[in-house]
Amino acid sequence: MKPRIALIAHDMKKDDMITLAAEYVDFLRGCHLTATGTTGGRLANEVGLTIDRKHSGPFGGDLQIGAMLVEGEIDAVIFLRDPMTPQPHEPDINALVRACDVHNVACATNVSTAHLLLAQLRTASRK
Ligand SMILES: O=C(CO)COP(=O)(O)O
Question: Is the pTM of this model over 0.95?
Fold first, then answer.
């Protein structure tokens, strides 16, 4: 089965997400990708990925992805959070990260961990 990966980035981290996705584009093309609205739009336009786009984070996108995760529909989350900027939907962000912990779903919240996670998933997919 294709890895099912959620990709989410706050505004100050979106450029990092684009760079990361471009680096793993060949692998990501073979995955089922879900993203919050604006992140997904940029990944589609700038990296050419096919993405299942949910609402923007502040409008419930994190919660939609959290609900998918609870239903067992997401294998890994790359969530590049901005720790320096207050977000209006902080409770939704915490709910998504908590859901990852509750359901033991891998969740990378910074670029270094995202590299480790994507590299591992890519290696596993080649076996
Ligand atoms: O706010 C977000 C995650 O909490 C991301 O939402 P967007 O991808 O729509 O900017």
Answer: yes
